[in-house]
Amino acid sequence: MKTVLQTNFNGIDGLTITDTAKPVLTDNGVLIKMAVLPISPTDWKLESDTHATDEQQDKLPRIIGFQGTGTVVSVGKNRDQSLLDQRVLVINPAGVYSEFVLNENPDWMYPLPANVSDESAAALSAGTAWTLKQQIDQSKAANIVITGANSVIGLTLLQMLADESRPIYPIVTAASKPYFIEQMPRLTPYTLDEHPTISGSSIVLDIVGRLDMLTTLEKQLSQPEIVSIALMQAPTLNNFIFVHDEFNADRYRLFIKQLSEGKLTALINRIFPIEQVKKAQHFAKETHSRGR
């Protein structure tokens, strides 16, 4: 079967598409024919730096990707036989960028409602946004500032903050303003240089990971809390923490339910054939965020 492998740390262009053995169905397994695979910044970061995230991925070769959607084609005797032919979202830390994925953990596979497309489920990136929302909910800060608010995680977080009463200040680039306004017409986006004077305490949710931007915000705001998902360390900042989402199966089930109910909208940009995986990653990395 066709598989996308990382065999070195030379970045995106070091990826290879290789024929590998199809997984053998086990008694506790479900075999999934993959259909849609998302691209996230974690992908290209891990392809050049094993220490890019808290999860150490230094054993090569490895199949890239962590989640995707497909259709169940075989079911082991110890699994629910009604899963056959169902569309599912599957999580697999061992990689998903292959024609077939074997799932042996029921908590890592989620049947999809009829009104949730493969593309929407694959693009689901709500776990990190949910983690940031927990930081906001726990904070007593009077204002909420979000860097990279036009990103997939930023826009997903803002969907989760629909009922938030505190002022929200989305920070985006000038080039991303029109896109942000299209996605979030109820909010006013600002560039780093033009946001209004913010009085009172603030919490900064950092999705960009630029120390210079956070240093500027720290000077502009009054002793802000700074919570980053993109910068693991920032010793020059006074009130800084790094957070990352912990996997939770029930939350994934909730997010899929919210997609089905229209409470969450997946953000999708372009779809590429698997043969163009390098082109797709370069596109995602080198253009402004407009969805997965």
From TrEMBL:
**Any one GO molecular function term:** oxidoreductase activity, acting on NAD(P)H
Q: Which residues form the Alcohol dehydrogenase-like N-terminal domain?
A: 27-90
Which SUPFAM superfamilies does the annotation name? GroES-like
Superkingdom of this protein's organism? Bacteria
Q: Does the keyword Mitochondrion apply?
A: no
Any coiled-coil ranges, and where? none
| Signal sequence extent | none
Keyword Amino-acid biosynthesis set for record: no
- Give the record's keywords alphabetically: NADP, Oxidoreductase
**Record's InterPro entries?**
ADH-like_N, GroES-like_sf
Matches recorded under PANTHER family: QUINONE OXIDOREDUCTASE PIG3 (PTHR48106:SF18), QUINONE OXIDOREDUCTASE PIG3-RELATED (PTHR48106)
By what name is this protein known?
Answer: Alcohol dehydrogenase-like N-terminal domain-containing protein
Organism, as annotated: Secundilactobacillus collinoides
Taxonomic placement: Bacteria, Bacillati, Bacillota, Bacilli, Lactobacillales
